[in-house]
Each structure stands twice: as C-alpha cells, then as structure tokens.
Amino acid sequence: MINKKVNNVADALKGVKNGMTFMLGGFGLCGIPENAISELVKLDIRNVTCISNNAGVDDFGLGLLLQNKQIKKMISSYVGENDEFERQMLSGELEVELTPQGTLAEKCRAAQAGFPAFYTPAGYGTEVAEGKETREFDGKMYVLEPAFKADFAFVKAWKGDAAGNLVFKGTSRNFNPNMCGAATVTVAEVEELVEVGELDPNNIHIPGIFVQRIFQGKDYEKRIEQRTVRQK
C-alpha cells in the first residue's frame, strides 16, 4: 500500500509554480479546498489559470486569489457572486472562459478517464461553439469539447485514509470527484484522516488511485454563501 499522507498543506503543495493550471473543487463556497487556497495565497503564486465552477466571493475562496491579482485566467460556469471578478473581467485584467456547467464537469471527467475530447449538444449555435468542431449525430448537432489539462487538482473531502481513498458528504461532493485524477497531481484535503481499513469499501466515493497526496485540513470556516431563512 502506497502511503500518500503528507504532514501539512505546505508539503501537499510542493511543486506548484507560477503559470500553472489548477483545478479547484467546490460549488459556491460548499466543498472548496480552503486550506489549499490559503496556501496558494501565502505562496504568492502568480499568472495561474484556475478551473472551477465559480470564483468564490470577494473575501473568501478563490476571491482571495483574485484580490491579490494571482489569477491570469478563470475557466468557470457561474461567476455572479464576486464583484471583484466582474470588475477584473470587464476591465480586461482577467481572461475569462465561460463554460456550460455540465460541460465543465464532463471536461474534468474526460480528463480523469483519459479521453482527449467528447461531443456534447450544449452550446451549439452560441459563442461557446465558436472555433470548435461540430458534427451531426442522428439529426442533432454536437460540439467537440477537449478535456481539460491541469497541473494540480485541489479537492476537499469529508474523510480519507492514507491510501487516498475519499468519502464526500452531502452536496460538498459537487465537482470534487470529477477533478480527482484529472490533473497531473491531485491533492486532497480532508476533515478527518483515518487509518487504512477504517473506511467502509462500499461507501468510498473515490479510490486512492486517483489521489497523489492527502492531508488533514484544519480551521474550516464553511461559510454560507447566501443565507436564506424563513420568516417567523
């Protein structure tokens, strides 16, 4: 059994460099790799491309990297909660590639499975399809979408073991499983790191083969992006 446990986030992020492409799991602020993002801010890594469903909020998540002007390009699906993202995009400071949400998930999964590209009907006839190969299947038009290529994937799970096996909890699963194994190096941070054999094999969501490094995170804030409560 290969022990993939590292002592802390600093060890987990060894090898990250300026200009790299990173995948980051999460949906809004749910299931984001908080420790990895904080370490990237601390390391002051610059000119990076980030693949993530969205860009956090102004003062948390990927919004921290945006504030420091560390991100050169964002490949995302939804970006409506971040004013700084909007400002940088409209001013031309930030390169943005908007991708249909299902297509973004599949581009990750295709990379995970080793497929170079796939056909999807999403985006045909729109700006999303400009410059891309299209093809008809059974009378319906499809767009050829290439799989993502990334240097590091940073994901967040509920539990994991030293072999890299992961268990996600509730909606925090979101994009995290598809990003595991979709980059050259996958770094998983978990709330609870257990010994090998403690996880029920029937409940493991991602096998360790897709993970290269794993560590137990700390100080999770787990912020709520928009809290809505019913009036009494």
UniProtKB/TrEMBL annotation:
The keyword 4Fe-4S does not apply. It holds the Pfam family CoA_trans. Keywords: Transferase. SUPFAM superfamilies: NagB/RpiA/CoA transferase-like. GO terms for molecular function: CoA-transferase activity. Gene3D superfamilies: Glutaconate Coenzyme A-transferase (3.40.1080.10). It comes from the Bacteria. PANTHER family: ACETATE COA-TRANSFERASE SUBUNIT ALPHA, KETOACID-COENZYME A TRANSFERASE. Belongs to the 3-oxoacid CoA-transferase subunit A family. This is Succinyl-CoA--3-ketoacid-CoA transferase.
